[in-house]
Amino acid sequence: MLKTALFDRWRWAVLVPALILALPVAMVFISVFSPQFAVWQHLRQTVLADYIINSLLIAGGTGLGALIIGTSTAWCISQYQFFGRRYLEWLLLLPLAVPAYIIAYTYTGMLDFAGPVQTWLRAQFGWSFGDYWFPEIRSLGGAIVMLSLVLYPYVYMLARNAFSEQSASLSEASRTLGLTPRQHFWKVALPLARPAILTGVALAMMEAFADYGTVQYFGVPTFTTGIFRTWFGMGNAIAAAQLAALLTSFVLFLLLLEKWSRRKIRYYHQGQKHSAPSRRQVSLTKQAGLILGCLLPVTFGFLLPAWQLCSWALANWQRTLDGAFWQLVWNSFSLAAMAALLSVILALVFAYARRLKRDPVVQFPVQLAALGYAVPGTVIAIGVMLPLAWFDQQIDLFAEQWFGIRTGLLLSGTIVALLLAYSVRFLAVSLHGIEAGLERIKPNMDNAARSLGFRPGQVLRRVHIPLLKGSVLTALLLVFVDVLKELPATLILRPFNFNTLAVRAHELASDERLADAALPALAIVLVGLIPVIILARSTERRMRGDE
Amino acid sequence: MLAIEQLAIAYGPHTVVKEISFALAEGQIGCLVGPSGCGKTTILRAIAGFEAPAAGVVRLQGQVVSSVNTQVVPEKRKVGMVFQDFALFPHLTVADNIAFGIAKLSKADKAAKVKALLKLVGLPDLGQRYIHQLSGGQQQRVALARALAPEPKVLLLDEPFSSLDAEFREVLARDIRTILKQLQITAVLVTHDQFEAFAMADMIGVMQLGQLQQWATPYELYHRPASRFVADFVGRGVMLPGTMLDPQQVETCLGIFQQRYLPETKAGDRVDVLIRPDDIVHDDDSAIKATVLDKSFRGSHILYTLALSGGEQVYCLALSHHNHAIGEQIGIRLDLDHLVLFPRSHGV
């Protein structure tokens, strides 16, 4: 028994990488056991309250903003028939392609004193500096608006599915029981969609907690910027890790909320047969209102910033489109491709192990490793840095003692660190896609192929690979794009003098060279559009399949 | 109580319901049957107010609720509906589902009403359960209780048994009929299953392609079908070819039969005579012999498929102890209470 357990290849194939992937987050929590009284005393007296309050306000505000925008647009799209509805249905997803730090500095460029909006206002009304009040975008409120504008699609997607999966007879039942359509929304449709909406809100809030680029650029002190400051400003990595542990606890609470909501979704959908709801026809005036309402978030979350980026990029392309830019593209793409490949290979191993071995020794480590998607990039970066730096130090010491040579930074200053961080953060993305693909290959298909005379290897080649190809490609692409957009972990862990599109855009923007940052930013947004298009197409296909 | 007059409903250029008229008195249960896509559910939805008529009128208690010019919104009609998929609210308990339509009542009144309804539908102890904890038959009963709670003037049931196992259907149909009769509720049921219709309804309407072929009692529908479609759709039977000898007599291979005067026929016309299985009586002494082609045992009865001397096939429902082997010749006699005949259609 013990022997077979020890020599089970699948268990080792899962346990070793899963533990490595779980290590960074574990390190962050382990750091709690090394109290840093002096630093915490200082933090508590100065900035800790700001960190906590600002982070909570930003997450809460973003959650509320995403809730309102996402739910209302989802309701309009799923319930009413109006001109352009089919286009708006996927246009509303577009802001997902824009990372928050990019929209933040785009709006800063548009709205600051020298920007087009204030310039136009001054020209129009003859105002000059100090004559008028204009809202300051670089503020806590501004950060909430920015984050809401790009994160509402999480709520929109889930709420739209929830609303359109509600059987048409539910609303008819409400009406035969004397409720007006408005009462039906508040008493039935909304409570039924609540688990889905909550899941979306939790996801948006997790992203808001994790955001570094926006708050750093806006100068709002939060946990993520605080972790940076404690580590690089105060030079205390352990205290930074402890801050990270505190931040992660907030996020884990949201994660629990999300998991709990997801369970509820399933339970709310039991015993309901689907009958495709018919969308309500409305008058032309109402149609105009609906179009306008749905266009607002698309315009402010995507069209306007994209247009601004394009105009900046076009004005400066002769200067910015140089060898250095192509070097950035190469760095970003090769890094993202490596990370995507690694992540998908890991996901394939994990997914197959879980399919073949139903025992907890395999199931639990995989689930643990997949939790990384909820952990902010800053936290993962610290979690990666601590053990790698320790490892490098030990090797260095060892080599010096025995061979008299210094090995220096073997792993922590290299791409290995980055790849580990990306694998931790994005494993869930690839795992989710591949497990969904594998689920379609029913175990009986294996049995059928075996009974028709194929060996296991042949079953893999003739049945699994053709069926899995699509999911693998999608997973590769999704991780690729996520890595390309990732900012904080890359910023911390990148090798010296190694720049990516995201890092460069952030650096240029921080140096107030907004127009120069446009080209790398635009490249990120364009690549970011690919998964959004895939998402839009797959949901459309699914919806059509229902009808 | 409920009157439908010359009702027509169209989706764009397609008229799905054509000039339907029928009426139900208070406490009567009506049923619309027909193959799927015949427009029966559309009529139900028009009564509930979910479809607007292209022509005609729907009256509830004498008041026009649907016409080309007026359309009372569903929530103001006091029409209850039981949906095909039950449409129970999964986020509410059974008791909250039932109380959903009576939100304006006081708390005590509501509780009393819910309790009474749960007892009525035979689920007195399940008020605190959630919908997903109930079986299909229990969900059906909750859906009925919820629809009855606001004391509707008219109750509509759209294929209420279609998602249940066959064995439950008849019991539940009987139970629901008893409840509706007890409460004196006017109800309209839609189904594609004639046995459900027979079990539930006082009046049955047979629909085909958006038209009401016949509106009659179950007995009349079976024994005096107004059209060939109704004859085919309701019950089992065969069409035996015959020739009119004069407007009162028809000759078939089973003999000459008297019939009431039918204006459309004259001597020499070729007609089809509807023969139900129970019209053919097994009689060993009869001179008419038929060969047993097939038999299906039904417990108390055996349904024989017989071939007549001329090759025509008929059914015969014989008592179970008249057991004959396939291929055997048995004597039969036609015992027609009344003749149902249709002009021979071309090409048949």
UniProtKB/TrEMBL annotation, chain A:
Domain ABC transmembrane type-1: residue ranges: 52-256, 329-535
Superkingdom classification of source: Bacteria
Gene3D superfamilies per UniProt: MetI-like
Keywords from the named record: Cell membrane, Membrane, Transmembrane, Transmembrane helix, Transport
Chief location of this protein within or outside the cell: membrane
InterPro entries: MetI-like (IPR000515), MetI-like_sf (IPR035906)
Mode of membrane association: Multi-pass membrane protein
Pfam families, A to Z: BPD_transp_1 (PF00528)
Signal peptide boundaries: none
Ranges in a coiled coil: none
PROSITE patterns: ABC_TM1
Ranges annotated as spanning the membrane: 12-32, 52-75, 87-107, 137-159, 192-210, 230-257, 288-308, 328-352, 364-391, 403-422, 465-484, 517-536
SUPFAM superfamilies with a match to the protein in the record: MetI-like
Protein localization: Cell membrane
Record family assignment: Belongs to the binding-protein-dependent transport system permease family.
Protein name: Iron(III) ABC transporter permease
From TrEMBL, chain B:
Domain of life: Bacteria
InterPro entries: AAA+_ATPase, ABC_SmlMolc_Importer, ABC_transporter-like_ATP-bd, ABC_transporter-like_CS, ABC_transpr_FbpC, Mo/tungstate-bd_C_term_dom, P-loop_NTPase, Transp-assoc_OB_typ2
Location of the ABC transporter domain: 2-234
Record keyword ATP-binding present: yes
TM regions (residue ranges): none
Gene3D superfamilies: 2.40.50.100, P-loop containing nucleotide triphosphate hydrolases (3.40.50.300)
Record protein name field: Iron ABC transporter ATP-binding protein
Species for this entry: Alishewanella tabrizica
Phylogenetic lineage: Bacteria, Pseudomonadati, Pseudomonadota, Gammaproteobacteria, Alteromonadales
